[in-house]
Amino acid sequence: MIQFNNLSFGYSRKKLLYKNLSLSIESGSIYGLLGKNGAGKSTLLKNMVGTLFPVEGNVMINGMNPQSRKPSFLQTIYYIAEDVYVPSLTIKQYKNLFSPFYPQFNEENFYKYLQELEVSVDGKLNKLSFGQQKKFVIAFALACNTKVLLMDEPTNGLDIPSKAQFRKLIASVMNDDRIIFISTHQIRDLENMIDKVLIVDNGNLLLHSSITDIAERLCFKTVSEIPAGVKVLYSEKMLRGISVIIENLNGEDSALNLEHLFNGVTENPAMAKQLFSSN
Amino acid sequence: MNDTFNLSRFGFLLKKSILERPIQIIGLTFLILGFTFFTYSVFLYFGGWGPAQNLSFIWGYIGGGIFLSSAVFGYFNTNASGSAYLTLPASALEKWLCGTLITGVFFCLLFFGFYRLIDTAFVTAYHNGLDRNSPLYQKMYNAVHIFAFEGNIVRQSTIMFVNFTGIMLVGSLYFNRVAVVKAAIVACVLMGVIYLLNLTVANILFTNVDVAFPFHNILIKMGKEAGSIELTPIASTFVDICFQYILPCILWVTAYIRLREKEI
User: CA torsion, points B21, B24, B29, B30, in degrees to nearest 10?
Assistant: First the structure.
């Protein structure tokens, strides 16, 4: 479980990015952290892994404070930064040097993930393409079997088949004790994969909800005219009509459109708050 | 689980620290040793035994130490490598110990061993090349000795080594990019400011000041006459202790504190 207790963070004390953020994240879920460029997604992840420290308040991950960066804590969390780092080593050398630090590391799974992601196992890692390096780091991170996995823009640099393979892999490694946190601005990459959504903008948490809850509260559909008498969170003219997100008054089932949801919540945060605060 | 120090984890970390970046650590060390050999040979050819032994030792030991110490914590050039280093499951003490062991122990042992080896080879070759029947044989033989590690040059070099490497260790943890250049600039500016400040104070108190070296002496010149004002023995001992022990300890411990508090 991840608990943010009145967390305030800013790159300068005078200008805080997050102010008194309180948030609880349960195990057994894949979280999608959505936000525009510069919205504070990476900052939030870095506070969770302990490479940035809050100005006030704290983050507690499974009862441990990331700021102290104790080995017992770091063994339980893996952070994949947006721009990956791989040294000038072969895959085997990398595994031999880095895996001893992760007691739950599974070598068999590691090679299985590499195969599934179609990572070339020959040659030095730093000679691979960016996408291959990224897939290698993802495979290693998954094989470490940490309780918390934080990924910053993991699908950047991946080709279309790799993105699909990535989604399959993430779904296959998920269990009730794990928290997977994926930060991205490429919203479509997360569709059908995440079960909880967090939307941040300018350091504000605009939405924290499960996919089920969103489907219960909102209806995503294409209409010829914007319906009257209902709250409209978002509308966009399309070729076949107007795509809208409206209040789900009749309990209709509809397919979630994360991109539209994101636009609706960031453009109309007050209404989003209203829609999600009512029971 | 011991979160401060674990021997097997430390072993893995030390192995990882050396083998992960072979060019930066192993390659640089061999480059320093090669440079020392080259300097020794060049100065021996152009300047004789004194400059060859002294300058190659000073440049290799201090210069090499400066570059190596700036490389051991050189993970912060990119966000990804910095994050990977900070989030690696090992304690700050273990990470710091790795850096200090590589710079302060392994490098020194390797450098001193290598230096003794090349120095012995050069000196032996010189001694063997002398004509034993020459009347000057004994004089020429005695003119060249193996460089003594107990001498003042080694002592002064070691004081400079521990201080400069300490500055570089701290600098590489304060600056993320081109830390060696930035730390060197800061150190030079700081030394320049201290020198000028000392010279200004000396000029206020005395006239005809020629040189006022901080924490050492003031040289006064009047025409052809020159005299110096030395520190009192107690003050001189205190300054020596400061530069030999206190300042290096502060710098090396600061590197540990900085590593614990490093954010990226």
Answer: 90
